[in-house]
Amino acid sequence: MTFGEKIKAARLAMNLSQTELAQMTGISERSLYTYEQLGTIPRKSNIRKLAEALNISVSYLLDDQESNTQIHREEDLFIAEAREKFGSKGAKEAQEVLGRVSSLFAGGDLDEEAKDVFFQALMSVYMDSKKNAREKFTPKKYRKHRKTE
């Protein structure tokens, strides 16, 4: 799938019109049309807005291969969980961590199962360290009190 096809498929899967997606992202309808129909690749900030609005990863949008869709789903879930627990800054940090770590495997000899185990461990460590940092460094009066965490 091309970039434009991925945008269109994700938009339709969420039952959104181009107008609705434009309103959600602040990107003009005309720009959305050029992304979907003409295959124009937007600037980085618009790619990020589209990924957030469509609940998909930036890496999925930019990856020409379809073979890693399960990995992308797991990454998307990880980023969504980071957003839920730590806000948009946490989600952005999680996405940056994944981007940096995935470059370690470029051209490597590890099989997919080993990579999956590594990413699962990384995601677990990230969530735990963010939670611990929140508890240690955020003054009690600013902490969100949650019953289940």
TrEMBL record:
Keyword DNA-binding: yes
Keywords noted in UniProt: DNA-binding
Record-annotated HTH cro/C1-type domain positions: 7-61
GO molecular function, one term: DNA binding
Stored SUPFAM superfamilies: lambda repressor-like DNA-binding domains
Pfam families: HTH_3
Database matches in InterPro entries: Cro/C1-type_HTH, Lambda_DNA-bd_dom_sf
Alphabetical list of PANTHER family matching this protein: HTH-TYPE TRANSCRIPTIONAL REGULATOR XRE (PTHR46558:SF11), TRACRIPTIONAL REGULATORY PROTEIN-RELATED-RELATED (PTHR46558)
Name recorded for this polypeptide: Helix-turn-helix transcriptional regulator
Organism: Mordavella massiliensis
